[in-house]
Hints:
The chain is of the alpha+beta class and 293 residues long. It has helices at residues 15-26, 85-88, 107-114, 140-153, 170-182, 253-257, and strands at residues 4-6, 9-10, 41-45, 56-59, 64-68, 73-75, 96-101, 127-132, 159-161, 165-166, 188-191, 200-208, 212-223, 232-238, 244-247, 265-270, 283-287. The longest helix is centred in the middle third of the chain and has 14 residues, at 140-153.
Amino acid sequence: MSSTGWGGRTGSPPISLLIITLLLSSGLMLPAVHAAAAELMLPQVYARQVPVSGWLMSEKLDGVRGTWDGRQLLSKNGRVFNPPAAFIRDLPPFPLEGELWGGRGSFEQTVAIVNTRQPHDGWLQLRFAIFDVPQAPGGFTGRLAQASDWFAAHPSPYAFVIPQIPVLDQARLQQELQRIENLGGEGLIVRKPDALYAGGRSSEILKVKNYQDAEATVVAHLPGRGRNRGRLGSLLVELDDGTQFRIGGGFSDAERESPPPVGAVVTFKFYGKYQSGIPKFPSYMRIRRDREL
């Protein structure tokens, strides 16, 4: 008996369609584009009045956020990264969250490495620094123990669990922050040990810095004077709310010779804001190249 419905043709469905149907039903065929990324658990900014004694602290690594879904490595926006097989060979069959990190002061190089479309040995300069196991049950300490147990049995030269240090009191927190900043680090992350995993900004994860940072769009290049005559003096930038201001510090000589282009998004640090909304003492940090990752 003939059937209809295959593009208006009669007869049995094509063999190729039968094969695709079988593969999809068995789970062997995977979509070419990964599904939308789940909402990540993100830190809020630490304030001194928040009591964090008894919490856990670790260095805030300045890298590119990555998620291991048990099979492949993804960006925060769900884009599939392309590391070589050696980089992911010893990762577990369960999800992990962490930072793709090449060491302090290597953010730009890290972005360039992970942004490539083909596997290459540059990845082997990086490590996957793990700070959570999002699908494990229970509080933060218990979740992270699952990753620690895995890597104790399956050590990897390209992955490690970020050490967590108990916060004894505010003085110890500030002492550790100063130590990390003296080493060229960005700051600290403090976490409540029994915090459950929940997507979005969480008051149970806090980032601790002696400065704030934000992003702005370059509107214009303003010429320099004195030793900077003939090259960049400052950037005129704009925040998302339309506030415009100048960034005149933080640039290397090379960056003044070849500044971030108009339209680029840059990260800057500052120390509070004036009543006008303009950041105090803004200083250039870098072009934000990982926004689309």
